[in-house]
Amino acid sequence: MTSERGNGASAPQPLAGVRVLDFTQVMMGPCATQMLADYGADVIKIERPGTGDLSRTSVGLDPDGLDNPVFRSLNRNKRSIVLDTRSEAGKAVVYEMAKHADVVVNNFRAGVMERMGFGYARLAEINPRIICAFGSGFGQSGPLAHKGGQDILAQAMSGVMARKSDATVPLSVYCTALADYSAGMHMVQAILLALLQRERTGRGQQISVSLYDSMLAMQMQEAAMWMQRKRELNWGSYPLTGVFRTTDGALVLVGAFKTNPLRDICAALGVADLSADPRYATFEDQVARREDLQALFREKFASNTTEYWLARLDEQDLLCAPVQTLAEALESGQTAANGMVLSLDRPAVRGGNEPMRLVASPLSMDGSAFRLRHAPPALGEHTDQVLEEFGYDPARIARLRADKVLP
Fold this sequence. Notes:
Helix content is 37%, strand content 14%. By secondary structure, the protein is an alpha/beta fold. It folds into two domains: 4-220 and 339-402, Rossmann fold, CATH 3.40.50.10540; 250-322, 2-Layer Sandwich (formyl-coa transferase, domain 3). The strands form four sheets. Strands 4-3-2-5-6-7 form a six-stranded parallel beta sheet, sandwiched between helices. Helix 2 (69-74) links the parallel strand 3 and strand 4 (78-82). Helix 7 packs across helix 8 and helix 10 packs across helix 13 (306-315). The longest helix is centred in the middle third of the chain and has 24 residues, at 178-201. The two termini are 26 Å apart.
């Protein structure tokens, strides 16, 4: 099964030959290892017997059970083995694999890999070139190091949840996993940097990222403004920016990055130029009278369709867009043009014949195409195949199975 995106279809992938032992689960770790796998790394997903990665069961009674859409979205191009790592024989299998691995990734709580016997110090004894990547909720040390981390907790504790464009809106959870994805991509960056450094030093290292740190880093502009000026910086609360209902939907307007955006907005709305009114002449005046401006915008936009107003705003070269649902975005012409949806035949082991559709990699590289080499794996689908590649003969695999190390 192959699928390619980009102009480098025939070129070697940049991470071909890199072997990754993947202990990750849920989202932060799996989205990082999937990015590595998409560009050639051999990612071997080591899963617990019975249930595997927690995301296999996170959607409840999904008709596809352990192969539900949430798991599939994060685990293409990987191979899955099931292994009881609590047993000495199971640990020995991991140690044997670590001898020939480049990277080991986990996103357990701090100290868990060490208690399992797979901490960096132990694995580096086996393989000094190994890179151990650790993703956590709050970091390796400090008062929250051993607290269970999760995306929503990171939103809350980093200040992201408290920052709103409108103070009258109740506090709420942002419903896309911002912290998981950003920390996962930071983990990819750290792994690639460690691989580059290993080329120079010949040695691996331990690296770590956290949900909490990634959320703070995402707010670098706002944090700098607060630390240096004790002022709140909130792009969403600017006086000429907002989300506005129309007769058939909604649009977003960003009144910024122009010499006189208020003048152009008034032209689009068909009203007198308020920038010529002394009450709205400066940005500071507009901030002071934000509610008056926003009320006018709401009234005008509510009088016609989204398409009508977008055309008017575009005529003035204003930053604007329709508010689309995810379903609409997935079916849009831009999504198709960017090749952002993969469609693959669902293997018979999953049941059913309908295509499996997934969001593709967002990277477009001229010299190295994304390739779909493996469908998201069934639990333990590649156990025997992977062990054979590490030198285990059928008799040895059978003994491990008889000893309940393998299912």
